[in-house]
Amino acid sequence: MKALNKEGRQQVADIAAKYNLKTESVEALLKAVINGNGSMAQFNIPELGGSGQWMRGGMTMVGDMFNNSLKTTVENLANELSALVTTRVLFEDIKDDFNHETSSYASSGGGGVGNHSWPSVFGSPTSSGSQNNFRYAYFGPVRRLVIEENGKRTIYDTKHHNITGISQQQGSGNSYQFTSKDGPVDISSLSVISEPAAQVQETPEIAYDVTSNADLRSSATSSSPQDIIFSTIEKINVLFERGQITEQEFKSKKEELLARL
Question: How would residue 104 be classed by pLDDT, with cut points 50, 70 and 90?
Answer without folding.
Answer: very low
